[in-house]
């Protein structure tokens, strides 16, 4: 097995796509609904995946190269989300990720490879939610900005041998998100629905010169409260990316995510979810398990 450049090795290109995308955006607070003035909302979420499968550029699943059975990608991430209600129609928020990635392969014993793992604080995101309509259908504009605060591996060691960009905890470039959020409560029936549709503008990486393609981000969600303490939701969420400056590097993933919320206290709840991939391109194919703890005051 030879070491290829980041432009030609499909496995490395795929891992780079993961590093640039990080993890899927997720609803920070109740979809289109905003907080009341002076109220605070926080969430800590753990996401875990371990997989030996990936989607290739054609959307087919396979392994990570000639020794696929021995290759496993593992990721454990913790996300801290905080939102505050400036007034009844405007929220501001921040998301701080802590990421640990590892890529195990029995054949990775080449002297020119660095350790295929990385951990640390990832790229931090800031948000503003501006409620536009408060009728039967609630409409909110969500604005996001990602700062390249996470450590980025430029893919070259001093001798010029390729390292592994896919293990970076940051993307080395900034993003701007524009998301329209629509929500509807069907009260008195204990049912609600959310729809998020957004566009992500991705800036050029100043270190590598890579210019990733823009992305469409989406989330469709329906939930029901069978009891006062239990909420069941089903989400269809994902991203669809355009081709970037390296060609044939567009990414995409769609997850079906059954989710359970349990209200432990008036201001405290927990969430358990599993994101099941149903389609993808240049993206991991494994399930993504999540557990979250919410606090609101």
Q: Mind explaining what this structure looks like?
A:
The chain has 297 residues and is mostly beta strands. Helices cover 4% and strands 55% of the residues. The protein has one helix and 16 strands. The strands form two sheets. The protein has a twelve-stranded antiparallel β-barrel with strand order 1-4-5-7-8-9-10-11-12-13-14-16. Strands 3-2-15 form a three-stranded antiparallel sheet, with helices on one face. Strand 9 and strand 10 form a beta hairpin.
Topology of helices and strands:
Blueprint: H1 10-21, E1 40-51, E2 54-55, E3 61-62, E4 71-87, E5 90-105, E6 117-121, E7 124-134, E8 137-147, E9 175-185, E10 191-202, E11 215-227, E12 230-241, E13 252-265, E14 268-281, E15 283-284, E16 288-296
Antiparallel strand pairs: 1-4, 1-16, 2-3, 2-15, 4-5, 5-6, 5-7, 7-8, 8-9, 9-10, 10-11, 11-12, 12-13, 13-14, 14-16
Number of helices: 1
Apparent shape? globular
Helix content: under 10%
The pLDDT mean sits at 81
The Cα radius of gyration reads 20 Å
Classification by helices and strands: mainly beta
Secondary-structure element sequence?
HEEEEEEEEEEEEEEEE
Q: Tell me the span between the first and last alpha carbons.
A: 56 Å
Please list the strands of the largest sheet in the order they lie side by side: 1-4-5-7-8-9-10-11-12-13-14-16
* Strand content range: over 45%
